[in-house]
Amino acid sequence: MKQFYILIIGLLITSTVFAQIPSGYYDYATGTGYSLKTQLKKIIDDIDDPEISNAIEELHQDQGYNAMDGFIASFDLDNYYETGSNTILDIYSENPSGTDPYTYTPISDECGNYSGEGDCYNKEHVIPASVFNDATPMYSDAHELLPTDGRVNGFRSNYPYGVVDDNQLLSQGGISNPTLNGSKVGNNLNSGYSAGYTGIVFEPIDEFKGDVARIYFYFATRYEDQVSAWSSFDMFDGSNDKVFTDTFLSILLTWHNNDPVSQKEIDRNNNIFYNHQNNRNPFIDHPEWVNAIWVTTQDTEAPSDPTNLIASNPTDNTIDLNWTASTDNIAVASYDVYINAAFAYNTGNPNTNTTVAGLLPNTNYCFTVKARDTSNNESGFSNQTCETTTDNGSSGGDIDIFFSEYIEGSSNNKVLEIANFTGTSVNLSNYTLKLSANGNASWGTPYSFPAGATIANQDVFIIANGGSTVCTSEYDDLNNAITSFNGNDAIGLFKNDVLIDILGDFNSSANYAQNTTLVRKPTVDRPTTTFDISEWNSFGSNNCDDLGTHNQTLNLDSYAENKVSFYPNPVKSYLTINIENNQPVKIQIFDILGKQVFNKTISDSGRIDLHSLKAGVYIITLTQNNSTISKKLIKS
Locate the Fibronectin type-III domain: which residues (predicted)? Predict the structure, then answer.
């Protein structure tokens, strides 16, 4: 399963959604059980239903089977496991935790003929087309068409999905069983949640079982009025309400509950709606509706409380949380995370870890979590754990490590130097470098610093090409990939995968330092996401006279933290602001949820009245010139 990282900017929790459920789309879905299923069918089908006149209704627009080629090439790409690979995401070849056994280039690797696994991909009907006699719009419905390896698609044939008995695997020429990613075909395991069927079934890997289940629930809903008239299919019971036999309903429900909705499914659902056929899979948008429709006895049992919550690995802006999983009579779906007793976010998955990012430096945070099950029942709170973020320089605004020297010399003489003038040693575990070659509009594979690597204050870290021969005694690490640059390639320094410093112009192939050595000027004190050649001194090719050290001349009077202070803290009524240089200071105070509760600009030292603030924990920011400091403020 994928780890989710939640971004909280200044404790103001926001969400940027580029494509989402249209407002009012599900307003008609007010029922329960099979009545809810029928309401959803009317919302997502191709009929203009007059009874939905008080809500938004978007009609399913069949685009035809051949249109799926372009959709797959554009929207079924692997941006989740091999980010930026521009290859097809095939659930039958994807290895979620390692290297895929093979990959496919969109369009050019589409079948075609195949003889073995890895030859090409084609379009698979997750519900076999023979079930509905190749009729439209089922045959071209994007929600049930996935790109899959041609040979594995043929191996799966028209078999139902189920739980394979490993002692009864099916043997077939030209393919291994299990397949290269672990999918398999064999007799159904007639026990446990899959009891009641002994025929041959196909079983995908755990990562995609929920995906398959939600496709079946969509199909049973979208074509509710037709399914009972179709050809016999072992997964179906001949009805148009329940649709599935007891055995296969048990399998699909278990897969749905154990494998929650993924970002891949969310993105695909949005792309089908906005960029293709204008309808949605409601069980991706509202996974709780699966149990509301098909589980006749509603689950009211709450999960057990999470235990052993631990906060660890603090940085200036992040804290890791880990805990022991809750248990539930059906399945735990996700966890709610609370910061200082206020709800912060839901993890969206049953993983027992998360990283809270974007926190303020040098600030103490206390955390608790609650579990939610697939019926939205909520547990009690876990134990509380507290941790303080570090202060490695980011409290000074954008003070951080930065590129200090760049050598683009002859042959393999390629060197990068990064300097630290934050005031304290910096652990490099949260930093990466990325290369964008020849004006490419995307970043390449990240370079990660060696495990445990740090830069002491006023020191540097140097990465060189393995074939470099200039000043070799100064190198801290060798990496040929990140140092494969030429004078027109952009190089980015990232912190928590956010760009903080850059060499060259991203998305431009213009030369800025060909056969040149660049050394950052000593007046530069922080990184910047916009490259400015005036910040650099330029020298000839292969010049490494300054490599291994970096000089910085700082005007400390420019820092607000040296010129502005406040007391007392905790404060009861009045807070005194002391300004040493008589330059205006903007004072902002935010509550723990990020809401601004005080805003005032003063030019002279004095007191501000905080009688109106309730007792509690706040964040105060003081801004002078271009510098800002943020501190925790306690109102007693």
Answer: 302-393
Extended strands (E) in 376-413: 385-388, 402-408
The DSSP letter of residue 561 is H
Which pLDDT score, from 0 to 100, does residue 440 have?
83
pLDDT tens digits, one per residue of 251-291? 999 999 889 999 999 999 999 999 999 999 999 999 999 99
Q: What is the DSSP letter of 414?
A: E
- Residues written for the chain: 636
Q: Which of 338, 365, 388 is the last residue of a domain?
A: 388
Say whether both 449 and 343 belong to one domain.
Answer: no
CA atoms within 13 A on the CB side of 452: 0
**Is 58 in the same domain as 171?**
yes
Query: CA–CA separation, 283 vs 301, rounded Å?
Result: 22
| Token pair recorded at residue 83 | 């980010």
pLDDT in tens, 445-503: 999 999 989 998 889 999 999 999 999 999 999 999 999 999 999 999 999 888 899 99
Tokens of 598: 């005080």
Helix or strand run (H / E) with residue 372: strand 364-373
What domain range includes position 577? 557-635
Instruction: Dihedral sign for Cα 353, 358, 364, 368, please.
Output: negative
106 and 131 assigned to the same domain: yes
Paired tokens of 459 = 């020191």
Residue 276 is given by DSSP the state I
Distance CA 179, CA 100 (A): 12
Distance of alpha carbon 223 from alpha carbon 240, whole angstroms? 9
Does some domain include residue 532? yes
Q: What is the mean pLDDT of the chain?
A: 86
**Whether residue 284 sits in one domain with residue 324:** no
Q: Which residue in 419, 425, 400, 336 sits closest to 373, CA to CA?
A: 336
Examine residue 439 and state whether it is found in any structural domain, yes or no.
yes
Query: Do the domain assignments include residue 6?
Result: no
* CA dihedral sign of residues 187, 191, 194, 198: positive
Q: Would residue 246 count as lying in a domain?
A: yes
Query: Where among 519, 554, 589 does a domain terminate?
Result: 554
Residue 594: pLDDT band with limits 50, 70, 90: low
Helix 68-75 × helix 263-272 angle, to 10°: 140
pLDDT, one tens digit per residue, over 80-119 is: 888 777 899 999 999 988 889 999 999 999 998 888 999 9
| pLDDT one-digit tens code per residue, 293-321 | 998 777 788 999 999 999 988 887 788 99
Give the Cα separation of 410 and 83 in Å (integer). Answer: 32
- CA-to-CA distance for 419 and 469, rounded, in angstroms? 22
Q: Are residues 42 and 186 in the same domain?
A: yes
Residues 322, 307 contacting (CB under 8 angstroms)? no
Residues 383 and 449 in one domain: no
Residue 5 has pLDDT above 70, yes or no: no
- One domain, residues 182 and 200: yes
pLDDT in tens, 154-208: 999 999 999 999 999 998 888 999 999 999 999 999 888 899 999 999 999 999 9
| Banded model confidence at residue 538, pLDDT cuts 50, 70, 90 | very high
Residues 249 and 252: their CA atoms lie apart, in Å, by: 5
User: In 237-394, which residue ranges form alpha helices assigned H by DSSP?
Assistant: 246-258, 263-272, 282-285, 288-294
8 A C-beta contact, residue 163 and residue 188:
yes
